[in-house]
Amino acid sequence: MVNSKTTNLVGLLYNTNKDYVVSQLKNLDNSLLLHCFAANYYWNSGF
Are 42 and 15 in contact (CB under 8 A)? Predict the structure, then answer.
């Protein structure tokens, strides 16, 4: 995985702006990155 894409993904995981995160996830063209986001997301955060 490209380092800049990984850094961007980590930024989405820690971003608290729901609308921004959703818009960025809709624009992902790599299903592996979406899978990594879902695997690392803290599901009990109430998001």
Answer: no
Q: What is the pTM of this model?
A: 0.71
User: What is the rounded CA–CA span in Å between residue 6 and residue 46?
Assistant: 24
Q: How many domains does the chain have?
A: 1
Distance CA 35, CA 9 (A): 11
Range of the domain at 35: 3-45
What are the residues whose beta carbons fall under 8 Å from the beta carbon of 20, sequence distance 6 or more? Answer: none
- pLDDT tens digit sequence for 4-37: 888 888 898 888 899 999 999 999 888 998 998 8
